[in-house]
Design brief:
Strand order of the largest sheet: 1-2
Structural class: mainly alpha
Number of helices: 17
Largest sheet: 2 strands, antiparallel
Strand content: under 5%
Oligomer: single chain
Number of strands: 2
Order of helices and strands: EHHHHHHHHHHHHHHHHHE
Length: 508
């Protein structure tokens, strides 16, 4: 085994980044496109309420559950090999989903999409780590990678709305097929292959324990978001925590663990993961509430709401590309702290928004997304750059798992808080049927479906109650982001400017 220092990336590496951006954007698209598919799909397949919930959630559950396993698997069998295999599986599962004749088969297809998606996320990020060994270039490349995912999420309602209107509910799933063909055609020419030279066999017991730790926690978070705290959620959370404890103990005993828990001894690695978690809690919850506000309060169609999300996506793009450039002159922790400080202005706008305030709300979310851009680029680079190249797949999977968990927690906590405020403030007029009263008191989502059954002014009052919930949730999220800002400025001040740190050696 020899030691080789990679030089600065050239045209082939940047072209390879463009290729990696395609599956990354596709994954972002898949996060939001189903919101446009659900109504027409439900009319065709007639799923029960429980089946519809699993159609929506199966993908996220399996992605989060398998990220750690797939990131480590890529280190062992080769990251390009994992990417191309996962791309084939993702396209096949997408075709299966597009033509699923029953709700049960669509649930299965969504689960398979989740497993396949878990191969794409860490493999793309770890390949970037191999292709861009120069710290400054790697940070810019990660910024492009993070922004592509966000742009995919923003494009989901637009692409989904156009395809559903022009064809049928399954058409948006088929966007994966041309992307897979392009990636498979260009992978060998543009992407390097890398497998850790001394990696051992995959420990299946650790795989099982990781699933037992992550899946129940994700389920508990989503259960709290939809039904509030309860015994099932508590039991799942306890099971997940206990499995996590056993998992960590096993990793410490193994000579070649599924996840190297010693990585958490690196302060930059641990703090960066913590800040990413807090940041994604705020962004995940805010995105959910802002899209709800635009559609339920302002009355925009999903397509138009997607267009309004364009400026925030551009703000994130500017921050994700600009932050690594600024971090060549100032320490990354200071840049991240400053960007998160700017995002506090966005949370302030959201906390003071009222009815007919789509411009302040969109501007506020643009500031929030700007903070995420810098955080995603520099925080992810700290996580991936803190480990040897041989373990970057495992580090990438940790970064992705934390971000998936942050989004789920954000939707659950901030969504539940908004619902609680709504239910406390909404007024139910007399003379309504029990069913209508229950729908009005439950949420704004159910209220807008019974508008014709309500007295004048009732819907506007319900919209105001939801907006008050958005205000309070934004205050809470802003407080959490203030803590993350302090962590960046205080705990990451030792991280040198990009280019000052010695670029990593890579085992070849």
């Amino acid at each position: 085994m020899t030691r080789q220092r990679f030089t600065r990336a050239g045209p082939r590496q940047w072209a390879g980044l463009g290729l990696l951006a395609m599956p990354t954007g596709l994954l972002g698209l898949d996060v939001t496109v189903l919101y446009l598919v659900a109504p027409s799909m439900a009319a065709d397949l007639s799923p029960s309420a429980t089946q519809l919930l699993w159609i929506m959630d199966a993908y996220g559950f399996l992605v989060a559950g398998f990220l750690v396993t797939m990131g480590t698997l890529g280190d062992r069998i080769g990251r390009r090999r994992l990417l191309t295999t996962g791309m084939i599986a993702f396209a096949a599962a997408s075709v299966f989903a597009a033509f699923a004749p029953t709700a049960e088969l669509l649930i299965l297809a969504r689960a398979l999409l989740g497993v396949a998606g878990a191969t794409l996320m860490p493999s793309t990020l770890s390949l970037i780590s191999n292709m861009f060994s120069d710290a400054r270039q790697r940070a810019v490349a990660i910024g492009v990678w993070a922004t592509t995912f966000a742009l995919g999420m923003a494009a989901g309602p637009i692409v989904g709305g156009s395809l559903v209107d022009s064809f049928w509910w399954g058409a948006p799933f088929l966007t994966a097929v041309p992307v897979a063909l392009v990636v498979l055609a260009g992978a060998r020419a543009l992407l390097p292959e890398y497998a850790a030279p001394s990696a051992g066999r995959l420990d299946l017991v650790s795989v099982g324990l990781s699933l037992a730790a992550i899946l129940p926690v994700i389920y508990a978070v989503k259960h709290i978001a939809s039904d509030g705290p309860g015994v099932p959620a508590l039991v799942c959370a306890v099971v997940g925590v206990l499995a996590g404890v056993v998992f960590v103990r096993r990793q410490r005993r193994l000579s070649d663990p599924l996840l190297d828990v010693a990585l958490f001894g690196d302060r930059a690695f641990t703090v960066a993961l913590s800040v990413l978690l807090i940041g994604l809690v705020g962004v995940g919850g805010s995105m959910y509430l802002v899209t709800q506000y635009l559609q339920l309060v302002e009355g925009l169609t999903p397509f138009d709401a997607g267009l309004w999300m364009g400026p925030p996506a551009l703000a994130m793009f500017a921050a994700a590309i600009g932050a690594p450039l600024v971090a060549r002159r100032f320490r990354p922790g200071s840049v991240m702290g400053a960007a998160l400080g700017v995002s506090l202005a966005g949370y302030a706008l959201l906390a003071t928004a009222g009815l007919d305030d789509e411009i302040p709300v969109t501007a506020g979310f643009a500031f929030v997304y700007l903070g995420l851009g810098a955080l995603a680029a520099l925080g992810t680079d700290m996580v991936v750059g803190a480990v040897p190249a041989a373990r970057s797949g495992s580090a990438a999977s940790m970064s992705e798992t934390v971000q998936e968990l942050g989004i789920a927690i954000g939707v659950a906590l901030l969504g539940s808080l908004t619902t609680a405020v709504y239910r406390a403030q909404v007024t139910v007029p007399g003379g309504l049927t029990p069913e209508t009263s229950g729908s009005l008191a439950d949420s704004l989502n159910t209220t807008v479906t019974i508008t014709e059954s309500l007295p004048p002014g009732t819907v506007e009052a319900a919209q105001q109650a939801f907006t008050s919930g958005l205000n309070i949730a934004s205050l809470v999220a802003g407080a959490a982001i203030a803590v993350a800002t302090v962590l960046c400025l205080g705990m990451l001040r030792h991280v040198p400017r990009l280019g000052e740190a010695q670029n990593r050696d890579t085992d070849v």
